[in-house]
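The protein record minuted underneath.
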Amino acid sequence: MREGAARAVGDMSEGTVSLPWIVIRQDDNGNRYRVGRYATRAEAQKIADSLDDRGHKQLYWVERIGQNGDGSRN
């Protein structure tokens, strides 16, 4: 799935789209990777759940990107 699905919403007056929710994957070696950015927590959680259901050893979770660009685990 392409990052920032077409359902993204945001403040369009400045020509930007808000994608504050990210899915993170952690592999069995502890390496972390951003899987994608999403407009809603529900959309991000749906992706994380579907990836988690595949039965691999990786761990997936959802974080919200803060105002200063950092993630906060949810």
